Amino acid sequence: MIRRLLLAACVLGASASGAAATSLTPRLPLTLFGDESVASTDDARAMAFNPAATGRRYPSELLAGFARRDGHHEWNSTLFTSGRLGLYALRQRDTSQTYGASFAFGNEKLSVGLSPYWLISGRPVRERTDDQRIGVLSRPAPWLSAGFTIDHLFQPKFRSERRARTYTLGLGWRPLALLRTQAHALGTRLTLTGDVTIVDDGEWRQARTQVGGEFEPLPGLALNATLADHRNLRIGVTLRGVHLTAHAGSASQGDAQLYENYALGYHGGEEPTSFASPGARRVAIVRAGGALADESMGGVSLLGAGSSVAAAPLHRQFQRALEDPLTRGVFLDLRGVEGMAQIEELRPRIQKLRAAGKPVVAYMEYGGGRGDLFLASACDRALATEDASFAALGLRTERRYYRQMLADLGVRVDRSSIGAYKSAYRNLSVDATPPADTLAIQHSLTQLQELFTRAVTTDRRIPPARLAPILDGRAWPAGDLVRAGLLDSVGYREQAMRELGRLTRLGDKPRAVNLARRPAARRAWALPTRIAVVYAGGGIETGRSGSDLLTGPFMGSETLIKELERAFHEPGVKAVVLRVDSPGGSALASNLIDHAVQRLRRETHRPLIVSMAGSAASGGYYISCHADWIVADRFTRTGSIGVLFLKPSLEGFYARHHVREDDFERGSAMAGWSAARDWTPAMQASADSAIAREYRSFVDKVADGRHLTPDEVNTQAQGRVWLGEDAKQRRLVDAIGGLDDALAEARRRGGVPAGEKIRLLELGRPRGSFFERLIGNWLRASMDRDAHLPDFTQAQARALDEADAPDE
């Protein structure tokens, strides 16, 4: 692709109209810092050198420069960028002015840019003409950058002289970035460049060459230098603050000074620099609320299913707070966070912050549920307001049975399943909870309670007996939780912030910022994509991923297989992580995905690691079992190795309402597929036989993937749902942990050093059209507003949802 773009640029330049240029040796451009290169300059200065790099380093920037040789030779420059767009003005006193724009598009590894600009001459004759510059920038690795530009594209005439088309090719090299574990840190401290500029119809001896670079001996202090032919030397010193840049330098030729230059800039992206005042130190505000999931799902759903908040931004904010030298602590604002598996993955992030000497204070303005207390217990301090309420902190699950109600309507549900514990939709065909289901539910509730109690009491250093009364389901005021040791004190936001200021030694009112709104400067060149993460969330269906009007978003086998194909065949990817959060679904779709997993592993010889989120049951486990390594969270609901088939029958309904039906068929078992006929014993036996074959196939798949015997699998199957630690004891998973642990295993198996900074190739469900997202968000907001329930009932519903084991 790079070769094609370079070829296209050359062809465009060669075919551009205009008379032949005079073979003049190209002039070296006026520089601001002294280290400009078409390969390395990627701040606002890029507009005048290589427009493809516009906006690459900072999200926005304003830079002003001044240069002079004497009182009669002065140059002023003003450059502004916002995103990949830019404007600039260059003025030479009493001589000429240049006004231009620049825009770029592309990705981190390859981008293209165009800069149209206008030249205006000064005294004695005022003249105006337009000119163009195009550029290509390629950064295939953290240590290599290549730039190519064509200037004076159509060779305009200015001051009675045709401006010859010029070509510049530059290379940038960061030798320290060859150390893979230091490419994003130490690797950015030294940059070497080399540029060659030639004219379109000139001779090679007229080519201008220059070599230079930037060296940063201390964070924020950079030394710039460029040595060009004809003994042209440019040197400078640059100081970079968090948002400010200051530069001073000079250019000389031999013993004669050409000019001195100065520059001052303000940029939106924060530089990790030591040149910051004590007042720049701050704490980060991180807000967490809603049902956390791998992806923010916003499909239209009459039942409200599928509405979730992506957990990844929280992970990024915690990581930024850990790496940022200015951030001294975190203010964690909890607002009803749910999803225990996702919450548990956040706790190690908090532990890393605390270990680095960056305290975390949790604040609950409205109170909270189990999820809020579970996350707050990992923090240094936890506070809540005086009237905050903590209700329904226990666990409860309910099973309602509708067989008799359906019978009263004349409706019957025929069901065939294998596995005593395969309970999905059993409430449509029986009148009470079978002993197997009772055993599974009670075991699940006991485990969930033990996991929660163990973690909270350990973190808060209180005996379990003190926590037990709080989990009885009553509503508790914040003061009672303080006395129980679950909270440190009762207070409002200012008290919580004062406590964080005391812990961080930043005073009673520490400066607080939202790091999500404070992007960091992008100093490293293209980071390698070593690991691919494919997100598999929602119920499993055949075809493309989408959203069901009743139940919300689902995962389509066709979509997921395409994402797996891309992940396994992406150049540079060393390992693939399949992140599963699914209760199961279609057996056929699960089989197609599992077949694709086995085929891709065999074709590419790349390891596949499965990371299980909140649920990876039934079909969710089916698509996981042939991975090289399976990591499950302690709260992951997995297993449910079983099969069922459901068919509603309206025969009684039709009879009750005097609907007469005549049947014409070929095949004695065809009536079993009709919604107008109940199953006969023979039909039930036929369905049971088919389901038994599906079950044996499922068991064999698991046995093959997990290196167990079918009998060993069958013992742990029967539709039984296991939490993470139980699943590990039964060899259904390999390790307990979260996505970070799965990524660490993928690094190890893919040969990627643990300290190497990499970029993940993340593949998730298609976002859908703008209209779908707009209507989905509006409908969910309307339903939440119009069907609002009291907080206590909502807390109960959250607890019920946590305790309810997956049935599919």
Q: Which strand-content bin applies to the residues?
A: 25-35%
Q: Please, what is the CATH homologous superfamily of the largest domain? A: monomeric porin ompg
* Subunit organisation of the chains: single chain
Low-confidence segments, given as residue ranges, are: 1-23, 299-304, 769-808
CATH class of the largest domain: Mainly Beta
Number-wise, the strands total 39
Q: What does the secondary structure layout of this molecule look like, with pairings?
A:
Layout: H1 2-15, E1 60-70, E2 73-82, E3 85-92, E4 96-106, E5 110-121, E6 128-141, E7 144-151, E8 157-158, E9 161-162, E10 166-173, E11 190-199, E12 208-218, E13 221-228, E14 232-240, E15 244-253, E16 256-267, E17 282-293, E18 309-310, H2 312-323, E19 327-338, H3 340-355, E20 360-364, E21 367-368, H4 370-376, E22 381-384, E23 389-390, H5 403-408, E24 412-418, H6 435-460, H7 464-467, E25 476-477, H8 478-484, E26 489-490, H9 493-504, E27 512-513, E28 531-537, E29 539-541, E30 546-548, E31 552-556, H10 557-569, E32 575-582, H11 587-604, E33 608-617, H12 619-622, E34 629-632, E35 637-639, E36 643-649, H13 651-656, H14 681-706, H15 710-716, E37 721-723, H16 724-729, E38 735-736, H17 739-750, E39 761-763, H18 770-786, H19 791-803
Parallel strand pairs: 17-18, 17-19, 17-27, 19-20, 20-22, 21-23, 22-26, 28-32, 28-39, 29-31, 32-33, 33-34, 33-35, 34-38
Antiparallel strand pairs: 1-2, 1-16, 2-3, 3-4, 4-5, 5-6, 6-7, 7-10, 8-9, 10-11, 11-12, 12-13, 13-14, 14-15, 15-16, 23-25, 24-36, 30-31, 35-37
